[in-house]
Amino acid sequence: MKIHEEGLPFLIIACTVAIAGGVLAAIYMDSAVWKVVLITLCVLLAGITTFFFRNPNRDVTVDSSLVVSPADGRVIEVDKVFVEEYFGCECTRISIFLSLFNVHITWYPTGGEITYFKYYPGAHTFAFLPKSSEKNEHTSIVVKDENGREVMFRQIAGIVARRVVSYAKEGDRSEQGAQAGFIKFGSRLTVLIPGDSEPVVKVGDIVKGSVTPLARI
After folding, report:
1. Pairing of strands 89-98, 187-194
2. Does the pLDDT at position 215 exceed 70?
3. What is the 3-state secondary structure of the chain?
4. Model-level pTM?
5. Of 60, 59, 50, 57, which is closest to residue 6 (Cα–Cα)?
6. Average pLDDT over residues 176-205
7. Under 8 Å CB-to-CB from 52, ≥6 apart: which residues?
8. pLDDT tens for residues 5-50?
9. Do the beta carbons of residue 209 and residue 176 sit within 8 Å?
10. Neighbouring C-beta atoms of residue 26, cutoff 10 Å
11. Strand 105-107 relative to strand 179-184: parallel, antiparallel, unpaired?
12. Are 115 and 144 in contact, with CB atoms under 8 Å apart?
């Protein structure tokens, strides 16, 4: 287990606040009880920040016939929708909700060439609402595999998440299970795949990023 590079500035701030708070409590507070309370809160702040930005080691699933989950979380949608952006056709949609307790790294669900990338500024409504896929701040990324099959995935900010970070660039090549970005503080990932794909998860399933297959393409 490591700390993700996206969390280093936050961790430095949290540790600085924790140390400063502990020192001030020890020097200026007369009540032993309040000293313990403040120092405990400072330690919790640093601990929670470390926990949120954890970067676990994973045994990545690599299989070109599968679309692998791009995020940790719970499946909240498995259906068919018409996707106007880029595809202009009906696709299978699989959406994953990430709570504050999930790892918030985004992984590539398939390998190949990045043929499309777009960032959309937007609102910060609850990420579990269906409208958040298009109304909230998000990115849309399309990867074309070696057989010409294309998969889109969207990093979507939630009501707590305030920033979507993506490493994708059009023309670059991605590896299935490699890190594609990070969403800070609560979010949603939506995967859009060809309509004739076969989902292998259902609503309510718990999935692990870069490991759990979502569909057979």
Report:
1. antiparallel
2. yes
3. CEECHHHHHHHHHHHHHHHHHHHHHHHHCCCHHHHHHHHHHHHHHHHHHHHHCEECCCCCCCCCCEEECCCCEEEEEEEEEEECCCCCEEEEEEEEEECCCCCCEEECCCCEEEEEEEEECCECCCCCCCCHHHHECEEEEEEECCCCCEEEEEEEECCCCCEEEECCCCCCEECCCCEEEEEECCEEEEEEEECCCEECCCCCCEECCCCCEEEEC
4. 0.81
5. 50
6. 90
7. 7, 100, 104, 185
8. 776 777 788 778 777 877 777 777 777 777 788 778 877 877 877 7
9. no
10. 11
11. antiparallel
12. yes
- Catalytic annotation present for 31: no
44-98 pLDDT tens trace: 877 877 777 788 999 999 999 999 999 999 999 999 999 999 999 999 999 999 9
Which of 133, 174, 187, 197 does the annotation list as catalytic?
187
Tell me the residue length of the chain.
217
Which sequence spans correspond to the domains of the chain?
A: 2-55, 66-216
Does domain 66-216 fall under CATH 3.40.630.30? My reply is no
Q: For residues 86 and 21, give the distance between their C-alpha atoms in angstroms, rounded to a whole number.
A: 51
